[in-house]
Amino acid sequence: MSSTSPIALFGCKSTTRFLLDALLDGGQPVHLITIGPEKGSKQEVADYADLQAYGRGRGVPVYVAQKYSLQSPTDEAFFRDRPFELGFVVGWQRLIPAAILGTFATGVFGMHGSAMDLPLGRGRSPMNWSILEGRDVFYTNLFRYDPGADDGDVLDTYKFQITVHDTGETMHFKNTLAMKCLIERNLARLRDGTFTLSPQRPLTPTYYPRRYPADSLIDWSADIVTLERFIRAVAPPFNGAYTYLKDRKVIITRAVPFDVRDFGLTASAPGEVVTVFPNGKFLVYCYGGLLLVHEYETEVWPSAGDCFTTGPETLRHFPRNTEGFHDLPANDT
Description:
Blueprint: E1 7-10, H1 14-25, E2 30-34, H2 37-42, H3 52-57, E3 62-64, H4 73-81, E4 86-89, H5 98-101, E5 107-114, E6 122-123, H6 126-132, E7 137-144, E8 154-161, H7 168-192, E9 206-208, H8 224-233, E10 241-245, E11 248-259, E12 272-276, E13 282-286, E14 289-297, E15 328-329
Parallel strand pairs: 1-2, 1-4, 2-3, 4-5, 6-9
Antiparallel strand pairs: 5-7, 7-8, 9-15, 10-11, 11-14, 12-13, 13-14
């Protein structure tokens, strides 16, 4: 493989920009494949970034896909007419069609991770699910794409810690750094064709379901530990945990357990605001203790005695496996 042939980089998120900079700063030629803001909004891409101007400003050719799925004659013709040798997928939440994968001489490589390592935890939103389920480690895999969902052979794996301080944002940071490390330590072998791949472990694969913005609705019947993890898991760049007060949406982006002591507030109901401090922060009564809300967005300021609700929405409950987690075999999803 030529060391000067451009690397096709698929992505439309801030993580894509980070890896784009890393490749360019490492002297690698890149051709960016992305989508425009209209498609980013329509597809509800969390942390979407319009990279067209930025890429061109760095001297990178940019192709804006006709479809996010790349399943259009125009998209297929683009790759057929420009046969790349190597591609990376970073921040592109779609499969790559077989017709396009077949045009790459070396292959298209992307990352997918889970707290249990592949083939367990394939599917959608694995970083969010890892926080929600209270996991403490995460395995990021660099694997070669095939037409299936996260089932390609693995080139390399990077394991990192999930702490009690991690949020949706910091998990993105860690996963992006893991991907950068994996690419840097394998790029030379990918370029000269000396890399080796390993099949995923011979286990029955499990899959996480996709989480939608509406799945960030807070269930105040949950215990305080679950609520705190929930708020961290869907914090920006995701849409943030939200609830309703007087029919107006309140988005809570940072909250922590305050105390198991009730301070004389035992008559309160779960989800009830029990104290508002002079700086605007407030306490919510929950099963298991008091939740201190540090950061939030609202048009209706809470007062003591107000009670949060699900408003006009209905909570969606995800099925669980026999261990109480949310990754399921394909036939059960």
